[in-house]
Known about the structure:
The chain has 4 helices and 2 strands, in the order αββααα. It is mainly alpha-helical. The mean pLDDT is 81. The radius of gyration is 15 Å and the shape is globular. The longest helix has 18 residues, at 6-23. Strands 1-2 form a two-stranded antiparallel ribbon.
Amino acid sequence: MPKGPLIYRIVMKTLEKLYLFAEARVKYPNDHTILGVEIDEELQNMSRRELCAYIETNTPGEGSFWKLDSTTKIRFGCQMMRDPDDTC
Length: 88
């Protein structure tokens, strides 16, 4: 969790919960291709929760993908792209 005044962390967690509540009710288009990359049909059919669980299962190292903050997850993904030979 980010460091800083407690009120900021509380606001961020509250907004995170609100976002997840709203996001679960939005229907997204089937993304057959994203930025020129073809997406496997299996991944297209997964919900956000299922996608995160898939990443959690296949994440190298110790710790939990679920417990990472959003920016930390993005940073992790960027690092995995830089080191494709290190992916699981």
